[in-house]
């Protein structure tokens, strides 16, 4: 009777594996490890215990992966790290639930840092992350071109938020007097350098799908913003963004127009200014160290 009435499938995966499946799927596709390398670099100054550093890495890693799962749904992405996006495998509802689950898994790690301030820092930077994402989505869906400053604030919130979270938690856990200057000042500069590096790198291979995705997703990237604002009377790029086109000829036309407005050159010049600021800050904090060298090389900031 038990065999006849049983509702369990022949092979039943445990509940935790089911809930985590979209999360674990993306975690197995390793990224560049920028955040872990950044934390290793800063720990050469902050010297927090290894077990607390590992907790912070887990927190940031879970939040980052959860945000990617949600991003891919909101952007209707097809690929992430060279594999099909999680929601194309597990469905949208299950992927959203898994991402939300990861946020609380990260929060569950905070008591291991043994400092009540961790919850305040965690909440502040998650709010910043969602503020940045909210503005990015609003500009895309309402077809509103932000100013350069508005864009950089958004990037600082959306991308810089997890960098700030990591450093603030590390500062909290450290007994060192190093890095006691306002972290908002430092990360306002450094995260802009890092994220603008990524944007400008995309412009260096504009025919590759990385840049094409911005046009298909209707996103206002740094060079697109500069190009639109350099000639507001020309509405061609805005109309291309509105269409969310996948047409390669239309994308090539858009890229040629953006090139004609000097927007790629402007991005490279802006990047040079921002990386110079980052260099000065890193040098002022004590010069080169092993992990810092690796981080700087990865971000394209040669000291």
Written account of the structure:
The chain has helices spanning 2-5, 15-27, 34-46, 50-74, 86-90, 92-109, 117-142, 148-158, 160-173, 183-203, 209-217, 222-230, 236-243, 248-260, 263-284, 290-299, and strands spanning 79-80, 83-84. The protein is mainly alpha-helical. The protein has one domain: Farnesyl Diphosphate Synthase (Orthogonal Bundle). A two-stranded antiparallel ribbon has the order 1-2. Helix 4 (50-74) packs antiparallel against helix 9 (160-173). The chain is globular, with a radius of gyration of 21 Å. It starts with a helix and ends with a helix. Mean pLDDT is 82; it is low at 199-211.
CATH topology tier name: Farnesyl Diphosphate Synthase
Biggest sheet architecture: 2 strands, antiparallel
Indicate the overall shape: globular
Q: Approximately what portion of the residues adopt beta-strand conformation?
A: under 5%
- Secondary-structure element pattern, one letter each: HHHHEEHHHHHHHHHHHH
Structural class: mainly alpha
The chain-level mean pLDDT equals 82
The rounded distance between the terminal residues' Cα atoms is: 73 Å
Question: Which strands sit side by side, in order, in the main sheet?
Answer: 1-2
Low-pLDDT parts are 199-211
Total separate domains: 1
Helix content range of the residues, please?
A: over 70%
By CATH, the architecture is named Orthogonal Bundle
GO molecular function, one term: metal ion binding
Enzyme class: transferase
Keywords: Magnesium, Metal-binding, Transferase
InterPro entries: Isoprenoid_synthase_dom_sf, Polyprenyl_synt, Polyprenyl_synt_CS
């Amino acid at each position: 009777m038990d065999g006849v009435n049983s509702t369990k499938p022949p092979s039943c995966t445990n509940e935790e594996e089911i809930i985590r499946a979209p999360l674990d799927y993306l975690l197995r596709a390793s990224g560049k490890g920028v955040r872990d390398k950044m934390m290793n670099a800063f720990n050469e100054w902050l010297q927090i215990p290894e077990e607390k550093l590992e907790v912070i890495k887990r927190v940031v890693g879970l939040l980052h992966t959860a945000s990617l799962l949600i991003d891919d749904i909101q952007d209707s992405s097809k690929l992430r790290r060279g594999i099909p996006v999680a929601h194309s495998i597990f469905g949208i509802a299950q992927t959203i639930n898994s991402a939300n689950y990861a946020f609380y898994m990260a929060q569950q790690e905070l008591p291991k840092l043994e400092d009540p301030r961790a919850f305040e820092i965690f909440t502040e930077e998650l709010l910043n992350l969602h503020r940045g994402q909210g503005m990015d989505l609003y500009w895309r869906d309402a077809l509103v071109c932000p100013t350069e400053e508005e864009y950089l604030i958004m990037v600082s919130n959306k991308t810089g938020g997890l960098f700030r979270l990591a450093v603030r938690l590390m500062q909290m856990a450290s007994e060192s007097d190093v890095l006691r200057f306002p972290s908002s000042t430092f990360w306002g500069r450094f995260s802009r350098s890092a994220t603008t590096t990524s944007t400008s790198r995309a412009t260096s291979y504009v025919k590759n799908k990385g840049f094409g995705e911005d046009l298909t997703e209707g996103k206002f990237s740094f060079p697109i913003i500069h190009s639109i604002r350099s000639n507001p009377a020309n509405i061609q790029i805005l109309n291309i963004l509105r269409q969310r086109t996948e047409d390669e000829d239309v994308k090539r036309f858009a890229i040629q127009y953006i090139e004609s407005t000097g927007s790629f050159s402007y991005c490279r010049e802006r990047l040079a200014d921002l990386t110079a600021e980052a260099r000065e800050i890193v040098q002022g904090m004590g010069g080169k160290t092993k992990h810092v060298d690796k981080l700087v090389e990865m971000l394209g900031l040669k000291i």
